[in-house]
Amino acid sequence: MDPPGLVVHGKAEPFSAALRSLVNNPRYSDVRFVVGQEQQEIFAHRCLLACRCNFFQRLLGTETGPGMPSPVVLSTVPTEAFLAVLEFLYTNSVKLHRHSVAVTFGLGPLQEHCVAFIEAHSQEALRTRSFLELSAAALLLLLRSDKLCVDEAELVRAARSWARVGAAVLERSVAEVAAPVVKELRLALLAPVELSALEEQNRQEPLIPVEQIVEAWKCHALRRGDEARGTPCRRRKGTLPREHHRFLDLAFK
Predict the structure, then answer these.
(1) Where would I find the BTB domain in this sequence (predicted)?
(2) Is the C-alpha dihedral spanning 170, 176, 180, 182 positive or negative?
């Protein structure tokens, strides 16, 4: 039996730096993207994207002829977020900022880090343009988190702003755009006066199904944690205390 061969490991830093130099570099590029509302042209390398990410593998799977193919248009993706995704794909590392957090490409490790970043910087992230441009799937993932450092009232306002932007872009109603995500809002955490105000606002601009608001009122009427137990009543890390929370008996986990 032949002895095992010698495995030689080079330094990771020069390798990572060399690949980072190819991010948005037209040299040897064989695929272009037109990204964001600014329609910025970004250069990339098909084989690297396809082998690193299932999203790009599906997107770029079609065989191309000679020469540079037509650019792939991603008008709803923020440019800075897209470049952050590319850097991670090329180098397996990226420095996240509140303006560049992206969770729309199905990148498991990067997605986890992005969610953790938003959980720790929730209030700042909610005020960014990137938040308003999140996909419904990305926002749904965030709203399912118990670790968001933000109160539920502010989350409701942020969801409404997000839905308004989507409604204007997609030419659909606010309620229709919001439908996939608002079910994760924990309305029972709001005080009765807040819930009443939300109900009135919802009459003027529908956002949340009436049935969901009714369920929140039930939690107040029952005033029993065992009856109200479940995600709609579970406190988040940033939930501000309210008098009725003692009846829900649902501490943050």
Answers:
(1) 29-98
(2) positive
Yes or no: say if 121 and 75 are a contact pair by the CB < 8 Å rule: no
Residue 234 tokens read as 């579970």
Q: In the beta sheet, which residues pair with residue 44?
A: 31
**Predicted TM-score of the model (pTM):** 0.68
Q: Using DSSP bridges, classify how beta strands 31-35 and 72-74 pair: parallel, antiparallel or unpaired.
A: parallel
CA-to-CA distance for 102 and 85, rounded, in angstroms? 7
Topology adopted by domain 12-105: Potassium Channel Kv1.1; Chain A (3.30.710)
Catalogue the long-range contacts made by 192-196 (C-beta closer than 8 Å, 24 or more residues apart). Answer: 192/220, 192/244, 194/153, 195/220
* Neighbour count for residue 122 (Cβ, 10 Å): 24
Domain positions in the chain are 12-105, 117-247
Q: Distance (Å, rounded) from C-alpha 162 to C-alpha 129?
A: 10
Tokens of 157: 């306002």
Q: How would DSSP label each residue in 15-42?
A: HHHHHHTTTT--TT--EEEEETTTTEEE
Instruction: Please say if the pLDDT value at position 128 is more than 50.
Output: yes
Residue 248 · residue 232 · CB < 8 Å: no
| Residue 50 phi, psi (nearest 5) | -65, -35
- Total residues found in the chain within this entry: 253
Residue with more model confidence, 100 or 219: 219
Whether the Cβ atoms of residue 143 and residue 155 lie closer than 8 Å to each other: yes
Give residue-wise pLDDT tens across range 10-56: 888 889 899 999 999 998 999 999 998 889 999 999 999 999 888 88
